[in-house]
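Crash report, auto-generated. Payload:
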Amino acid sequence: MDLNLTEEQDMIVGMVRRYVREEILPLEFDLDPDADELAPEDKERLVEITKEMGLYGLGIPPEYGGPEIDLVTQTLISMEISQHRAGLYAPCYGTFGGAGLAQLFEATDEQKERYLFPTLRGEKRGFFGLSEPSGGSDPARAIQTKAVKDGDDWIINGSKLWISGADRADYGLVFARTDADKGRNGVTCFIVDTDNPGFHVRRIVHTLRSANYATELQFEDMRVPSTNILGEVNRGFAIANDRLTRQRIPYAAGCIGVAIKAQEMALEYVPQRETFGAPLSSRQAIQWMLVDNEIDIKQSIWITLDAANKANRGEPFRKEAAMAKLVATEAAGRVVDRSMQMFGGLGVAKDLPFERWYREMRIRRIGEGPNEVQRHVIARELLGASLR
Amino acid sequence: MATRLTKPWRPVDEIEGVLKGHLGVYQLANADDEIVYIGFAGGASLYGLKGEVSERVAELEDATQFRVEITASYMSRWRELMMVHIADTGESPRHNPPVKLGRMSPGHS
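Recovered output after restart:
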């Protein structure tokens, strides 16, 4: 594996880094410390810049109008665009666009016309509705939302929890049990319009992160036509699983970006800050924190790029993606914690981004599959059938 | 946690004695208990809820009552209160500028 960036990767990373520092960071001075949105005029202006850079719509396949950028480079970009206060859950405030719900690339032509293309044009938003109050770590067994066939339609009843963006969405992918006896082979994915009379956003779930909140949904006799099934009946879990695996790489990369920024801030601060007549950087306790940060960051980068590289080559990458998610979320948590410690009182104040990163980073060990589940995924890959 | 803010209204002349510099959300009402503004005191607010509520009351002549909820999740809670208000009344409070929000059908809690 070549550990050097190509000339093109180096150029793209440099361009994105300048964009974050020159366009995003100055705007954050005037935003609330927990903000996750820019003023509409600022966002419009910045989207024009990312389009000029040729990087708008990252993650969208080129045949659908996205930039032709490989997964390794996309991962490097993800490590850059999270290097600001809101970067973990609102990287660059969405100014790079996104693929929306990648599962829709496998939709029927009619579904693509109704949902995918308007989403890519920025006219519609979707949400991903998998987790339920009964549990999110083992969705194949925990899904209790039921869909029952009624003529050409399905009637869905149940609830979902921890669903991001559902209150602002036009449609969503809702996973429901269509065969009670078949476990993971009894789940179907439905595309559901949020103006359906049976669709309800019941509440916001308040957590450590104040912005980009999750919601609780309820479905009451929600009638959905069979034409809105994504893929095949009882084959929905494969759709969910594919998404969960793919999402782990950018999820890890976002954490690494924040860790890089935290370490950069610490490295700038400790030579300037004096205690007992000497700069903090002269203290071995501080030096070791910086060293441990550096090691945490480096190992996370290489493990995450290895996963991206495998995915890019079309090889199985479930184990590597789980390792990236596991290592990066835990390492970045340690880096933010140490950096906060080096800044002392300033580190916990809302004047600096550490307190937000600290809160939001804690969620990353649970979101997208808790790290204990990642360990289970890795063990299963190592031990194969003997573990099942 | 209830979605609506249901604490009793207090007259605005109690602001000084009741409020401190906490983070949180607040509602202002007119003499008929009609909510006329929903706001929050965030990390950038000088003097937290005390500062924000005082400042807004000074600007809005019909705001004669207030109530608050102290919370570090001020951003998500503010959006929730706005969405609940729109679900209940069909519109934003009269003094809140237009803002892009989601939709909720919150039930009765």
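Post-recovery validation: Chain B has one domain: 10-89.
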